[in-house]
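Lab meeting minutes (informal)
Scribe: AK
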Amino acid sequence: MALDPSNPLPAALFDALIAVDTPTICNALEQVMGSRTATGFTRKPFVATEPTARLVGFARTATIRAASPGSMSPEEKERRRLAYYDHVAGGPGPRITVIQDLDSEPGVGAFWGEVNSAIHHGLGVAGCITNGSVRDLDALTTGFPILAGCLTPSHAWVHIVDIACEVEIFGMPVHNGDLIHADRHGAVTLPHAIADAIPDAIALCARKEAVLISAARAGDFTPAKLRAAWAEMKKVV
């Protein structure tokens, strides 16, 4: 059954997804889809403000710019910022804000720092994924993990450009409402149509990998033993 993004993420599915890292999710997606893929995930490293944290939730998307003031009046920038906060605070959870910095040099100014981490955490947002920058590393709100493209000390002229739009983060296209899994390795989108098949695929991948890992770590490992373990692995269902 396809996941309904207009409802909260089922607790059992959330628990199964948050229990594993993002590479494991990618393995499970390949199992469900029946082949490997080179799309749907980020392709560059992040600065992880909480390296052991994992994120699972529905994307709340927006775009920013920071390298120049832009053409909006201060009043319009304020209205758009407040509309953005309404956007990330609404809808089913858990929610992850996903912000693309549109500047030719993303990260000139940081949207993310002490204040915005506190605001978003207070609004019930689980965390952030951005190709832009983060600052205030020692003052960020604990429990609000941020995956950012870089560090910078200034916010420059950072302002919201658009809300609930399609974005791209390090090669990963994201639509508002997409289901995302992320950790220090990067992020991946999980298609709603197959999300409920991922937990069984995670378990299957673990059973298959266990055969090879056990053989490799048993001692006196040889190519012949690898071939035998490989044949046993292919039988696992």
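Next up, CB showed the second protein from the same session:
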Amino acid sequence: MQQTRQFILDILREHGEATVDEIVDKLQERRGKLITPVTVRHHINLLQAEELVTSPELRRRTSPGRPQHVYALTDKARDHFPQNYERLVAGLVRQIERTLPRETVNVIFEGIADQMAEDVPPIESATLDERIAATVQYLNEHGYSAEWEACDEGFILRTRNCPYHQVAEATEALCIMDMRLVSSLLGVVPRRISHAANGDRDCAYLIPFASQ
């Protein structure tokens, strides 16, 4: 992101909310050079277009004068700051695996997959290729980089990105969760024919014609 706009996000994160004049003052402290309110408003408009900064709200003065407009971060803007979710999740998964029987761990992650699949409207009446297309759409919306193709035996669904690969490298539980998720979305249990965790280029699932 352009540096000035990142500075504006940093200022709003640190102060909760700020007026244009307050942002101007803080930017000049950080940059060591002058910046005009017009320029700041331009950057704020761009950040609002990206849904990172809220619409202005009126701040009532405690002293005489016109009310001022203040800006704040949206929830979406939090993604532009360092997060520690992967380390937290990896720690949770390791603790679960250390303290619970393997069968219980698998049940937990299969339950998570079933919960994720509940977000998708039921498509039982659709044809198999329609269900595969809907599954690919869901997976792409959640970062899997999925696609599908027809083959002599049926269909192959491929995922070329694991949204949590750094965690998955240390445990098989998330791969089991993925298989359960794909099965729940498709309405059939496919056969995995390649596995990225084993060094393959992708995770691929064969859905035979017999599944229709």
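CB comment: The chain has a mean pLDDT of 87.
No objections, moving on.
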